Amino acid sequence: MSAESHGPVSEKLIYEYCLLRYVPDIERGEFINVGLMMMCKRRRWLRTALRIDEERALALAPECDLVRLRTQLGVFTRSDVPEAGLPVEERYRWMGAVKSAIIQTSPSHPGLLLLSDGDDVRKRLDAEFDRLFARLV
Length: 137
Fold this sequence. Notes:
Blueprint lengths: L8 E14 L9 E9 L4 E6 L3 H7 L5 H8 L14 H9 L6 E3 L3 E8 L4 H16 L1
Antiparallel strand pairs: 1-2, 1-4, 1-5, 2-3
């Protein structure tokens, strides 16, 4: 949760995020983080990014088909899926729903941005996304 502010707080902005995980063997439940999805309902903002550490994926599952994994993860970033027309919070919930598959999501986590007058909200959301992505994926 980010409480960073650039001056007197004028607005508290809540966001949610979840991690995208590669789980090659559902019964064992071992995973690596391969992406991040973050949403701010109030600002109608949704962003997803992916990064597959190929070495870690192959160490976890030597039989991993990296091309297939990228294809399956692509649904989280494509704009031509049926869910694309949904409001961001519905799309986030749909994409982040618990699934029993090799691509899973973590539980959703809340975050808070403290905004000051004059803050560029989208820049602040993007910066927070980048910070979380670098730390968690």
